[in-house]
Amino acid sequence: GQMAPTALExxxxxxxxxxxxxLLSTSIIESGIDIPTANxxxxxxxxxxxxxxxxxxxxxxxxxxxxxxxxxxxxxxxxMTKGAEQRLKILQSxxxxxxxxxxxxxxxxMRGGGNPLGExxxxxxxxLGVELYQHMLEEAVAELKSDTSLKDRNWSPQVNIGIPVLIxxxxxxxxxxxxxxxxxxxxxxxxxxxxxxxxxxxxRFGPLPSGVQNLLEVLTIKRLAKQxxxxxxxxxxxxxVISFRHDSLDDxxxxxxxxxxxxxxxxxxxxxxxVKSPLTQDYQRLGLVKTTVKALVKPV
Length: 300
What we know:
Structural class: alpha/beta
Domain Helicase C-terminal: 1-109
GO molecular function, one term: DNA helicase activity
Protein name: Transcription-repair coupling factor
CATH architecture of the largest domain: Alpha-Beta Complex
Pfam family, one: Helicase_C
Keywords: ATP-binding, Helicase, Hydrolase, Nucleotide-binding
CATH topology of the largest domain: Aspartate Aminotransferase, domain 1
Helix content: 40-55%
């Protein structure tokens, strides 16, 4: 992988032309190499590679009618991590036509699809919920296409608080059940339904972990934010920035009245609201945002 492009090409061409029988390579070999005459591969310390990497490397041999073999070397089982053992077991099971889809499913379940709601950009798509993730994708695509009709019909406030918001797998072990719970959470419309749902979770699975409590609070905040025509809420260690829909105030008189009551509120030139407050704990972030958004919802 550290060779000059011309030298790399010369080596691969010579191997393809069968000028030598053995090629020693790094994992770069996984990327699109097609050598029909290669029928044996030995992968050293296979436990150190990812599932997709192993699957791709294994696919570099057996690309013709000649039977091929892929040998995966590993240390003793007591040296390998549980994740490595799981990857190798999954790879052994992927031996049928169409196994690529199963691989993707296993790989996504093990590694995750990223956590767009977290500060550290890690996590699982299952931790967000398929519906929430799909909705975020639709919003992004609509924005790229300038599809205002879809955005106006299905808009949902963005709440970036920087705390865990998920149903952890140790709380609900079955993935399908977790996904169904996420779907039901997305359909909660008021406080009574939220409390009823929380009571059901406690009855079925035990006391609510902090991630679930946070998620229910964030969903409540989003419902209130939509009533207040708030499009986005960003929270950091020094306070929060609240952006209104279409960068305009739905009811300027009411908003200015609320600002006058709070010395730590300030309206910025871009019509966003800056709320200053030191926030070092998760509960402080949730409390500040919920209190602020409630104050911005004009009583009917």
